[in-house]
Specification:
The protein has 5 helices and no strands. The chain is an all-alpha fold.
């Protein structure tokens, strides 16, 4: 009867372990998918400078096309010099030139951003390579904190100065921490003390 109960309880434990592992894996995959979708949404909701410039270039290009259509339609008609329609035509031509100038400025800025991104990618790649190839033992030595450096040097000086022959040893101001001994150390030291006595 006890064997059957033992098998039953081990089966229940194994089933619970399997269920917990499966549910944990499902939660992790759901978290990863939601984190990826949130990052994608964030990039669309909060556009970077590059995305804003590209959007503005598209808007200005569409504006240029509509203005060029209006200019083409106005040129087919004959206007008197300095009439309202002729002034509107000239204003549209100036607007097209302004939009083209803005597009040229934005494209130069986009080229600068592209170069900056390439430089950052190269720096990151070099840093990763340095992290992989750098040996672990090249860490700089740890210096004592500057506020206690004088006390550190004093205690080191006291501990390293040899006592003069025939003089009493100086008491050091440092505190010695004595930890608990393990059973092996205690028995070995007790045996050595008992032999010495």
């Amino acid at each position: 009867m006890l064997k059957k109960l033992g098998r039953f309880s081990s089966g229940v434990k194994e089933g619970a372990r399997v269920m917990l592992n499966a549910s944990g894996a499902a939660l992790v995959s759901m978290y990863d998918k939601s984190a990826n979708s949130v990052s994608r949404l964030r990039s669309t909701v909060l556009p970077t400078e590059q995305h804003r410039l590209e959007q503005t270039v598209r808007e200005n290009t569409a504006k240029i096309h509509s203005l060029q259509w209006e200019i083409g339609m106005a040129r087919t008609r004959k206007f008197e010099a300095d009439s309202a329609d002729d002034l509107e035509l000239r204003a549209n031509i100036v607007r097209v030139q302004d939009c083209e100038n803005r597009i040229a400025e934005m494209k130069t800025r986009l080229a600068e951003i592209d170069v900056e991104n390439k430089n950052l990618a190269a720096i990151r790649k070099a840093a990763k390579q340095n992290m992989k190839t750098a040996p672990a033992s090249t860490a700089p030595p740890v210096e004592p904190p500057s506020s206690t450096s004088a006390a550190y040097e004093e205690s080191a000086e006291i501990l390293t100065t040899p006592a003069a022959a025939g003089s009493t040893p100086e008491r050091s101001d440092t505190v010695r921490v004595i930890g608990r001994r393990s059973k092996k150390e205690t028995t070995a030291s007790d045996e050595s003390e008992s032999m010495a006595a």
